[in-house]
């Protein structure tokens, strides 16, 4: 019985280590990707802010604000 518990604990530890290693690789790839990107221009920042605002507001609120 003790061997089964040890095997389960070992498998859980291996799975945890694998997930941690996979996350580390994802973080490193993201860091390298963003490091190579140029800083966003003012126009790109404005477009991103506009998109964020327009996608986070309900369509009813947008129609209400645009009415004459």
Q: Can you walk through the features of this model?
A:
There is one protein chain. This protein is mainly alpha-helical and 68 residues long. It has two domains: 1-37; 40-68. 85% of the residues lie in helices and 0% in strands. It has helices spanning 2-36, 42-56, 59-66. The longest helix has 35 residues, at 2-36. The model has no long low-confidence stretch (mean pLDDT 86).
Any key phrases for this structure?
68 residues; single chain; 2 domains; mainly alpha; elongated; 3 helices
Mean pLDDT metric: 86
Strand residue percentage: under 5%
Q: What is the count of structural domains?
A: 2
Cα end-to-end separation: 76 Å
Q: What low-confidence regions span 5 or more consecutive residues with pLDDT below 50? A: none
Using the alpha-carbon principal axes, give the shape: elongated
How many DSSP helices? 3
Q: Structural class, from helix and strand content?
A: mainly alpha
Instruction: Characterize the biggest β-sheet.
Output: none
User: What proportion of the residues is helical, as a percent range?
Assistant: over 70%
Backbone CA Rg:
24 Å
How are helices and strands ordered from N to C?
HHH
Total strand count, please?
A: 0
A few lines on this structure:
With 68 residues, the chain is mainly alpha-helical.
Please describe the topology of this protein:
Blueprint: H1 2-36, H2 42-56, H3 59-66
């Amino acid at each position: 019985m003790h061997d089964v518990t040890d095997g389960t604990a070992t498998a859980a530890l291996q799975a945890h280590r694998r997930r941690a290693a996979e996350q580390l690789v994802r973080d490193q790839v993201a860091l390298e990707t963003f490091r190579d990107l140029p800083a966003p221009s003012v126009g790109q920042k404005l477009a991103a802010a506009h998109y964020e605002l327009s996608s986070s507001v309900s369509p009813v609120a947008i129609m209400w604000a645009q009415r004459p």
